[in-house]
Backbone:
């Protein structure tokens, strides 16, 4: 049978072949690490001058060393240039994302009685500063601006920095500037890729050193975050886009095909699979994909075609839905959409995914832009242990404990026993009876 997109039959695959199917573009960062190191060192040593040079080299943009921060005039021009229909959509998305993330905000102090006379809990507070990275290489992404800035605003981070590559005209994308202003952020810097990560990790004369960086990026960005992870918190993992569309025999194949295209058009390093046990659904989706390609722009069509006809995309055909679910959990995709007449019947069995979108109407596209939950999600299998970007990523917890005079004795007795067993004399002495009667 001739197919338009790659097809992988799980029952016919060796363990080695199946392992290769799981790999993402950023799985082996070795080549990127070698290329990124000199970029980081250049920014560390020469600061703004290096950022200016890299803007010309990588972005084809003229950004003078004294023009890296977006000036108030450029912010005004950019915001004014945004069409009213786009502005309306941005405000709609902002409000949904804001409402959702406000529900995550924890109480500043939470204390619980854990024993008589003992209160234990925690205090939540924002981190001092964060850099929100918004990529631009394969397009402009104002939605990422909203997704990274809004939880920082909700968390009340004192200093919120937006860093994003300049376009060929040396300016930041107008809609990205509009989004920043729409959420109350005015500190924006022109830098992309590894050089942007280095700038906020070490600081330059213009760009502030930040405590954390969040936001998705290419393997260059992922590699840079790894290399500077002792200088700055690299935030949750967020690399090239990926998705699984899980479809059973009740799925609508046309809508499944549309959703399969969604993440495949982000770039040639993306991943996108239809996972199904129904060969009929697989065949119908395969036939629909070229019809969608016909309606895409040349650039996006080539990205999608590269992904869906290569080894990081296409159809994964399982023997049954149990095997399909097992593969889906093993893959741990950034986006997982369930195409079924009864999508809720699968929820409890789907344990590894950045987000689970239930039903044919919960299109991945909606989640990327306007639903509310954060669309900056763990990639490269990190969804096995990591979570979507949230307000919590911009905050830190400090334990709080109060022990009363009444609560102290039983605690001291038990702790003294454990300290003695572990050989910590000072610990044991600190809570021995003489704590209340110091030697003369």
Residues:
């Amino acid at each position: 049978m001739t197919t338009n997109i790659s097809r992988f039959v799980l029952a016919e695959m060796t363990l080695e072949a199946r392992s290769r199917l799981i790999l993402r573009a950023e799985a082996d960062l070795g080549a990127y690490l070698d290329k990124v190191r000199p970029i980081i060192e250049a920014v560390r040593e020469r600061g703004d001058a290096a950022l200016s040079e890299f803007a010309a080299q990588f972005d084809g943009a003229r950004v003078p060393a004294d023009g890296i921060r977006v000036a108030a005039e450029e912010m005004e021009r950019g915001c004014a240039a945004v069409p009213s229909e786009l502005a309306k959509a941005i405000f709609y998305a902002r409000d949904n994302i804001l409402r959702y993330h406000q529900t995550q905000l924890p109480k500043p102090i939470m204390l619980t009685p854990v024993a008589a006379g003992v209160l234990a809990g925690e205090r939540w507070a924002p981190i001092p500063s964060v850099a929100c990275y918004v990529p631009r290489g394969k397009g402009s992404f104002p939605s990422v601006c909203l997704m990274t800035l809004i939880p920082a605003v909700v968390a009340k981070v004192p200093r919120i920095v937006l860093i994003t590559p300049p376009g060929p005209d040396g300016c930041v994308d107008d809609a990205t500037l509009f989004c920043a202003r729409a959420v109350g952020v005015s500190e924006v810097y022109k830098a992309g890729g590894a050089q942007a990560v280095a700038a906020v990790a070490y600081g330059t004369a213009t760009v502030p050193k930040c405590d954390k960086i969040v936001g998705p990026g290419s393997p260059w960005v992922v590699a840079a975050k790894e290399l500077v992870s002792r200088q700055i918190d690299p935030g949750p993992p967020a690399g090239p886009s990926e998705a699984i569309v899980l479809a059973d025999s009740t799925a609508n194949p046309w809508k499944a095909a549309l959703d399969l295209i969604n993440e495949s058009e982000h770039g040639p390093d993306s991943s996108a699979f239809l996972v199904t046990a129904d060969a009929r659904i697989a065949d119908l989706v395969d036939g629909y994909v070229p019809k969608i390609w016909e309606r895409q722009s040349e650039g996006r069509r080539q990205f999608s075609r590269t992904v869906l006809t290569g080894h990081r995309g296409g159809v994964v055909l399982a023997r049954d839905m149990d095997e399909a679910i097992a593969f889906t959990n093993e893959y741990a995709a950034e986006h997982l959409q369930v195409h079924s007449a009864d999508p809720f019947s699968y929820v409890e069995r789907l344990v590894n995914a950045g987000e689970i979108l239930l039903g044919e109407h919960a299109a991945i596209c909606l989640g990327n832009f306007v639903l509310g939950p954060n669309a900056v999600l763990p990639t490269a299998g990190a969804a096995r242990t990591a979570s979507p970007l949230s307000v919590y990523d911009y905050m830190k917890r400090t334990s709080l404990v109060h022990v009363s005079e009444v609560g102290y004795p039983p605690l001291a007795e038990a702790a003294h026993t454990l300290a003695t067993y572990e050989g910590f004399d000072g610990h044991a002495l600190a809570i021995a009876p003489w704590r209340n009667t110091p030697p003369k």
Observations:
- The mean pLDDT is 95.
- The radius of gyration is 25 Å.
